[in-house]
Amino acid sequence: MLSTYTWPKYAAAPAPEIGTADVRRVPLVIVGAGPVGLAAAIDAAQRGLKPILLDDDDTVSVGSRGLCYAKRTLEILDRLGAGDRVVDKGVTWNVGRTFHRDREVFSFDLLPEAGHHRPGMVNLQQYYLEEYLVDRVRELPGVELRWRHKVLAVEARDDGARLQVETPEGVYTLDADWLIVADGARSPIRRAMGLDIEGKIFQDRFLIADVLLDGEPFPVEATERRFWFEPTFFAGQSALMHRQAADVWRFDFQLGWDADPEAERAPERVEPRIRRLLDQQGFGPIGFRLEWVSVYTFQCRRMKSLRHGRLLFVGDAAHQVSPFGARGANSGIQDTDNLLWKLALVVGGQAGDSLLDSYGVEREAAADENIMNSTRATDFMTPKSRAAKTLRDAVLSLAGEVPAGRALVNSGRLSVPSTYADSPLNSTDREDFAGWMRPGAPMDDAPVAGAHRWLLPHLGEGFTLMFFGAPTAAERDALEGLAAGPVPVRTLVVRERGAPAPAGLASVEDTEGLVAQRCDARPGTSYLIRPDQHVAARWRGLDAAAVRRSLARALGEGDAR
Asked: Which has fewest Cβ within 10 Å: 114, 329, 533, 541?
């Protein structure tokens, strides 16, 4: 029991399938109501699918677990209808500071430029996020959320999957056209089906402690990340400090592989460490209470393939990384952002089944990038040989003296949005563009004047053609023709500050010129944006035939290169 949070208990309704002879068939089943499964269910419902979401528990997660939610994830949560609650409750931060013993050797700013709606990072305990997502699910009529429904077995079939599900009232069978597996790192479904997962398990242990401090003000800046190599309050190891919601602080302590997990969780072992850290950081005689303590090991692994026919794996069920870098939940939510628009088009008959192969291509590459960065960070933080430690300590000493050495310090490269540079859905640029808003990149947000004050909400749930400037009569006809296709492409005109709105077309005013600047746009420039807000193609002028070819490619067919 936490003093700052009361877990909700959700009612487990009886399944209508219990006691019936016929096996019910449904379009989509999602297994696992953690952040990733809940995000998948919301996205599915908003796209017109009617998922059944199964979970073997009846409440949200215990302990803070996932903590840091990155800017791109916050933008996805905005589209899912939960972003404001997460940002309002959480602790916003952009600056991280790294120390070697008592000396600062490195710092970074996740959002060094203005003109973005969301911060670089928000800290929020996972149970709050899950509660907000459950609330959002309950607002949507298309989702059936079933608590205390445990999947006992899954049989993969050519036309879907058959599930055996256990409930307090009995067992039932359910056939699903599609199955999204979001049942966590241990994934009973993945294990039962004998599906591979490969990678590295790190031989080290870390202690997590959620701590409630008794008073304020705090001398330590409350909205920054602090990481120590070999701090004086915890000699020979590393430590991390974050502030969370409800004035709860998160502390991580490296214990070493030989540590006894049960012994290290004992308050008499944890509290002296917390006390020394607080004293060293200038908190003085402030009191504190332990809210939650856990000892964990971590791994960097992924499934060879995230798609197995009509079974689609997301989040920790598909890939795992160390917690340093905040790449777990952020990556999992980006999995669902990538997957659900594709699945909705396939189910709706607007795209072929092969479109879902691109989910594997894009998100497996993203997982590899996360694993690479996470492995490098972990190897730097926890060197496994005397030579590796000597090299690490030399880098830290150099960083304190030479600015160029600071780039070598690695206390966890924090989550950044995936850029699908090599995606088969991209169309190659035919003209020169400056900047990073190339095909495969997620569209940057920027301030605008319109129905919303920011660009991303104007992009909607489908394909959008961003057109810069005032369209001519011929361009208007071309844009209207694109909107009438089997997969419609809606137009969003981005007009200069003070320019009149074009009649009959959705538009925004680029109030600070940042949309055009970040897209290296001039009048006539056009960007085709995917439903997940990633760039599919761009041109210096509007060519309806080229847009149609790129749309076909973004749907998994044709060749726009």
From this structure: 114
Are 332 and 437 contained in the same domain?
no
Cβ(8)–Cβ(293) under 8 Å?
no
Query: Global pTM?
Result: 0.95
**Residue found by looking up tokens 């749907």 in the block:** 555
Query: Does 312 share its domain with 451?
Result: no
Whether residue 330 contacts residue 66, with contact meaning beta carbons closer than 8 Å, is answered with no
- Regarding whether 432 and 552 lie in a shared domain, the answer is yes
CA distances from 353 to 262, 310, 343, 356 (A): 49, 10, 9, 6
Residue 322 lies in a domain: yes
- Residue 255: strand, helix, or coil: coil
R_g of the chain, CA atoms, integer Å: 25
Q: Within this chain, do residues 79 and 173 fall inside the same structural domain, yes or no?
A: yes
Answer yes or no: do 437 and 310 share one domain: no
Residues 6+ apart with CB under 8 A from 241: 220, 225, 226, 227, 249, 250, 251, 252, 277, 281
In angstroms, what CA-CA distances link 289 with 212, 265, 275, 560? 5, 14, 11, 60
Q: Are 440 and 532 in a shared domain?
A: yes
Domain assignment present for residue 293? The answer is no
Instruction: Say what the pLDDT of residue 413 is.
Output: 64
Domain count along the chain? 2
CATH number of 166's domain? 3.50.50.60
The pLDDT assigned to 560 comes to 43
Q: What is the pLDDT of residue 411?
A: 64
Among candidate residues 361, 380, 395, the one where a domain is terminated: 361
Determine contact, residues 7/159, Cβ cutoff 8 Å.
Answer: no
Q: What pLDDT shows up at residue 415?
A: 66
Closest CA to 231 of 271, 274, 270, 269: 274
Q: Same domain, yes or no, for 451 and 315?
A: no
pLDDT of res. 561: 42
What is the per-residue pLDDT for 298? 79
Which of 532, 512, 366 minimizes the C-alpha distance to 447? 512
Helix or strand (DSSP H, E) at 280: helix 267-280
pLDDT averaged over 10-residue windows placed end to end, the chain, 561 residues = 90 92 95 98 97 97 85 97 97 90 86 92 95 98 96 97 97 98 95 89 85 70 83 85 90 89 94 91 84 88 96 96 76 97 98 97 93 77 77 77 69 76 96 96 95 94 97 96 94 97 96 98 98 98 97 84 42
Name the nearest CA neighbour of 529 among 454, 452, 439, 453.
439
CATH of the domain at 494: 3.40.30.120
14 part of a folded domain: no
> What is the per-residue pLDDT for 392?
79
Of the candidates 78, 112, 35, the residue with the CA atom closest to the CA atom of residue 330: 35
Q: How far apart are CA 77 and CA 122, in angstroms?
A: 12
Q: What is the pLDDT of residues 296-344, one digit of tens each?
A: 887 889 999 999 999 999 999 999 887 766 777 899 999 999 999 999 9
List phi, psi (to 5°) of 377.
-65, -45
Q: Domain span at residue 480? A: 419-561
Residues 336 and 455 occupy one common structural domain = no
Domain end call among 326, 341, 361: 361
Is 1 contained in some domain?
Answer: no
